[in-house]
Amino acid sequence: MTDSLALAPSLDGLVPAALAPRTHRIFLTDYVLPVDIGFHDFEVGTPQRLMVSVDVWVQPDAFPRDDRAESAWDYDFLRTEIGRLALSRRFNLQETLVAAIYDMIAARAGVTALRVSARKPDIYPDCAGVGVEISSF
Questions:
Q1: Spatial CB neighbours of 39, under 8 Å, sequence gap ≥ 6
Q2: Looking at per-residue confidence, does 116 or 38 come out higher?
Q3: pLDDT above 60 for 3
Q4: 135 touches 113 (CB < 8 A)
Q5: Is 87 helix (H, G, I), strand (E, B) or coil?
Q6: Nearest Cα to Cα of residue 134 among 88, 102, 96, 110
Q7: What's the mean per-residue pLDDT of the chain?
């Protein structure tokens, strides 16, 4: 059996310079977590569904050019560490949690831009959610 990638023609030099990638983004969308969050009496001690999304733009050299797992930016880090942080304590405000997630990811090597958002999807029956977002742009 032959490797289909080995049979693919080389495109080196065929992609016009105007189409060269200018940004490299990694994302995690609508990660659902049961978080003890909120300042109302009825919220305290009662975990709520919280949906967290992150968009991480990374330097080109932090984005893999080969197909090896060890070259990849670690998606597991995003999911695991966001979950660990969100479940580590109670939060009164989404703003506080989002800022903590933002700081954790922004401190990683290779990050050039960042957007973090969170929303509570179960607050109002006529809205998809209420939340906050912070970004570097």
A1: 92, 93
A2: 116
A3: no
A4: yes
A5: helix
A6: 102
A7: 89
Residue 5's pLDDT band (cuts 50, 70, 90): low
Span 57-74, average pLDDT = 80
**More reliable by pLDDT, 137 or 1:** 137
The residue length of the chain stands at: 137
Query: Collapsing DSSP states into helix, strand and coil, what is residue 54?
Result: strand
Domain boundaries, the chain: 29-135
Distance CA(53)–CA(60), nearest Å, equals 22
98 within 8 A of 20, measured Cβ to Cβ? no
Residue 128: phi and psi, rounded to 5, are: -70, -20
29-135 CATH, one of 3.40.640.10, 3.10.105.10, 3.30.1130.10, 3.40.50.11590: 3.30.1130.10
Average of per-residue pLDDT across 58-62 = 84
Alpha-carbon torsion (116, 83, 52, 62), positive or negative = positive
Both tokens of 25, joined, read 């983004």
